[in-house]
């Protein structure tokens, strides 16, 4: 880890839990928010209905579809008077840049897993608007965090509590724009 540790008493975390569909963004995000005493928002709740309908029909979103949604996610951070965790795919660097343009202090937590694990998780959540058929398009779009992006990457093939412990430890020592592989 680079940089000095953040003081837990004064740390004001703005975090995006990111990754492809099925990685556990909502579950991990909610657990992380609880651990940090932060608010939690599932970014899917901010999608316009047209985006949800498009994905439900098996059509991947394009950059034009995502831009207003990403801008709204970014706006939520400076509007929050306390720490906030938002679950959002944030698959491309350019998408993360849109979010960061509203609040440069945002830290990204990238949840990573094998295609097989992600597919199994997607198939185990019936009724979700994102069909498993879109997993490959998400994996093709995904751009991992780059060295100059504040964030951590965590393997999802472990219990949620262990993931949250790893992220919490990484956040305690992360206050400069570097990517730490946890």
From TrEMBL:
A GO MF label: kinase activity
Reaction catalyzed: D-gluconate + ATP = 6-phospho-D-gluconate + ADP + H(+)
Cited InterPro entries: P-loop_NTPase, Therm_gnt_kin
Keywords on record: ATP-binding, Kinase, Nucleotide-binding, Transferase
Domain of life: Bacteria
Cited Pfam families: AAA_33 (PF13671)
Kinase keyword on record: yes
EC nos: 2.7.1.12
Pathway the protein takes part in: Carbohydrate acid metabolism
Family: Belongs to the gluconokinase GntK/GntV family.
Protein name per its UniProtKB record: Gluconokinase
